[in-house]
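User: what does the whole thing look like in 3D?
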Amino acid sequence: MSSTVTLSPGAGVCHLPVRFPLARGAVLAGGVLAYERIGPVDAPVVVVLGGISAGRHCCAHEGAPARGWWEGLVGDGCAIDTRLVQVLSFDWLGGVGGSTAPGEGEEVPFVGTEDQARALVHLLDELRIDRVRAVVGSSYGGMVALQCGVLAAGRFERLAVIAASAASHPMASASRAVQRALVELGLRTGRGREALELARALAMTTYRTPEELGERFTGAPVFDGQGVRLPVHDWLAAHGARFAARWTPERFLCLNRSIDAHVVDPAAVRVPVALLGFDGDQLVPAAQIRDLARALPHLLVHHERRSRFGHDAFLKEPAVVAAFLREVLR
Amino acid sequence: MPVPLRASAAGVPASLVARPIGHDTITGATASTAARDTTGFRSSGQSPGLSPGAARATVHVLGTGAVARALLRRLAHEPVTVVAVSDAEATVFDRGGLSLDAVSAHLVCSAPLAVLPRAERLAPELALSFVAADVVVFAGGTALGHLEGAIERGRSVLRRGASLVLAEASVLAAAAGEWLLGLHRERVGADAALGGIGHRLAGELAELRADCRSVAFAGDPWSTAFVQAVEAGIAPADARALAFGAEAVEVTAPARLAAIRAAVFGAEWSRDAAPRPFVRDELPEPPSELLRARARRGATTRLVARVSRGGGDLQVGFEEVPRGTPLAAPPDRVVAVYELPAGQRVHTGIAVTVEGHAEALLGDLRLLAGKEVRT
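Assistant: Here's the predicted 3D structure for the full assembly of 705 residues, as structure tokens:
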């Protein structure tokens, strides 16, 4: 019957319809969507969507000077130039941030990528934005971008989809299923936070490549009486702890399930699409993106790049991503 | 043993026979309490209401208006026993439990309880002490002139260890400091009275009392509907008719904010300083040209109540509000925005319609029904 959010400076909030039906039968009652909107008010609008850990804050700006998740790619003079375009982004329903999400102990609703797209369309309606120059989506954001192309093709001029495809690859789903089972076990046993750390650590092994980890973690094993530790273990533990400090098990489960259930019929995407994939991406293999490229009715361009960072290349390869964005947004 | 009530020659349904309500499990009365409501009350793995094996809580509903009737429909499916319903003049009562279908059928005709056979003509105060239910729901309209009576009735309920659920913002505002902060606070249900944000307020009260600098409240469905109609190009007279109908409706936002003020800032309500109940005619809407001009530049207009820590009276008026901001709420919800050092804390509630209000009362009642009556 109610929701509570804390909005940091620079954030806006949009009230969703009092009953917002979700794709798999649940109903969000009185939900809100937290967003940021920066750039000249009369400039074309570019929607920027990231992974599940990303949110509304893409880059530092006057209203919110903290560093954003795509710093260097969004901002004044960047590939997405906030002197020339308005950038709009929002916190995921069901995730961390200011949008409605399950609280601790609350039942976890099923929120699909199509629901995120519908929430975006509602936000556009509320802000009286009739037309969007582009939706730039990476990872989970790319999945949502594809749903936008199905849901409201007339609203969007083009989609730029990075490291995402029409469905979750079985290999990715396999890892996610184990992550999910870990967290569900943690909830049942009262060890939710520990489980969340482990799930994130497992996820990190899928975000990078053997090549990168092999270069970074070359130290010898340490025997500490309780077992053996390698430098990569400390890296995993640090990521797990950082993640668990921000997330709750419920919110993790919500978006984890959302990714696994993502399905889009490429033939139904009626907006021109530009694709960028990375060879070495374990979650969204390059071959899967090639299949998508072949199936889309309006393919603008498809680039495949080699990266030692795998799926995380959309965060770690700014030069490559910037070149792609400049090509798509010109 | 249930006491049969004889059907009168006037055709009162013979089915108005008091009988125990079945011991059904809670199914929820409406879709909005379905298990998947993400912002609802339910916690996974926890059943609302009583523990298994515990006696069913008894409930006394004061009021017979639309909200009370909607609540009674819901209570028919709850593991509680409604033992009494009262209006200003009379009470129908049965310790074994009333037939809610029959009571509701009578009330839908807007007939007073007094015409029912075996209805007792009791002042509400006497009815409350006679019935002595575990949970008392104040679900009726209370004009300011009777506000002190409502407060005293509430105090009497709490003094004898029972729980109190409130539908009316004005009653809560008048005793907010006492009922939201005092000894009995855990036996007062205020979610409905605050438009569905009472639970949030209670859960975050310590932080808000420490850090909140100011509060703004928006949530007047009728003026919002009027504004939206004018923005859409409807002539003001037609917009007013659409939005307000024939009722002279009290504006509840000031009373709700007064209650929040008392809880968060500790300002005690007094009759002189109180935001007296505004009726709609006293708050003229801005000119339609102004409303439309704001809409053209991407803003909208809302009736907003504001109060600051240590800052005097409530301020109430129509304000320009940017679209896509918390106060630009649609007519079907209320919003409280608390200014904190870390940013704005936004509470949104949907207990605005009759059904939404009844749903919130039900949520309050479920939380309280399991509390032991302490005498």
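In plain terms: Chain A has a mean pLDDT of 94. The first helix of chain A runs from residue 113 to 126.
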